Amino acid sequence: xxxxxxxxxxxxxxxxxxxxxxxxxKQQGHRPHLAALLVEGDPAxxxxxxxxxxxxEKLGISFHLHTFDRHVSEAELLHLIGRLNxxxxxxxxxxxxxxxxxxxxxxxxxxxxxxKDIDGITPDNKLATxxxxxxxxxxxxxxxxxxxxxxxxTLAGKNVTLVGIGQTVGLPLFHMLQRxxxxxxxxxxxxxxxxxxxxxADIAFVAVGCPDVITQDMVHPGLILVxxxxxxxxxxxxxxxxxxNVGEKVxxxxxxxxxxxxxxxxxxxxxxxxxIHLQHYSREVVxx
Length: 288
Known about the structure:
11 strands; six-stranded parallel β-sheet; about 290 residues; about 40% helix; single chain; disordered C terminus; 9 helices; alpha/beta; three-stranded parallel β-sheet
């Protein structure tokens, strides 16, 4: 049976560091402030936003949830983002996705100031993720790597198979893995035989957003598998991209829920503190 790489301990270590840093900032008269934007209509987004708010309160971070009716205009959202960009007391901006179809996610993402974009969704931060320059990288790819390291696994020199190269997780993770000096094979919709690539892998990451993409017959006993997929079944159960019996065959696997997602939220707040550093010390250098 596989080692189950739960993330609660890793997340708590991140939170402990954040609480310590926040306390020091408050002693100096500063309090980190995060603004979240939620357009009503998606229950899951509302749930995650409230969860993040509760965590912020525990960390001593100021959190303002801006909630909009599902029929809100794009102009209204852009106006608020412009105000938040200019507000000196606001250090981070988080846009809850998905958005209603009448809103352009691309336009709204691009309107967020890169140095306040703790989700790493703006063009400047996407480029920084590719090049490795200073910036705010997406939280989920960071969580994938941090969870692996927490369990003592290194990436340098390892054969890594990445299944899924989407804009949110897979593609930025691909570039991060390369900077960790891993030898990365990227599998996507055009890949003919994913199992063949997995057979040569020491470590695999899956981020497709579809259950049972990885089945037991595709893996081997020495494989370490990080599952970044989050899917809801018809019965309302949350599952990953790997089939439930994959853990019976691999060496180690991250659970869903309780794996990458739990650590991702912690990394978001780590990004908030990094954003504050960029705003004070290197904003004029990092972002032109």
